[in-house]
């Protein structure tokens, strides 16, 4: 159960982070996620919060540009603290 809550929290954090970024950059909230550096549309396996960042070693699968660490922080920010 704690893992499920963690995953839901990271998904929520990822969604909020994505919507914030799109709002700031005046992008449509519709459409597929893409790399900000090369523009390549991300595969569904690239979109798993936290796990994808770790497996891809914090870089884009396609252009290998280092991703901003704030992406990971934002995904983790929405996970509830266990035991509180
Ligand atoms: Zn890229």
From TrEMBL:
Annotated PANTHER family: PREPILIN LEADER PEPTIDASE_N-METHYLTRANSFERASE-RELATED, TYPE 4 PREPILIN-LIKE PROTEINS LEADER PEPTIDE-PROCESSING ENZYME
Protein name: Prepilin peptidase
Domain Prepilin peptidase A24 N-terminal residues, every copy: 8-77
Database matches in InterPro entries: Prepilin_pept_A24_N, Prepilin_peptidase/N-MTase
């Amino acid at each position: 159960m704690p893992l499920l809550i963690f995953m839901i929290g990271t998904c929520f954090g990822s969604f909020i982070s994505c919507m914030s970024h799109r709002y700031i950059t005046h992008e449509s909230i519709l459409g597929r996620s893409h790399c900000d550096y090369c523009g390549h549309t991300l595969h569904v396996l690239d979109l798993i919060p936290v796990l994808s960042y770790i497996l891809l070693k914090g870089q884009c699968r396609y252009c290998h540009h280092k991703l901003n660490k704030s992406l990971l922080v934002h995904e983790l920010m929405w996970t509830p603290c266990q035991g509180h």
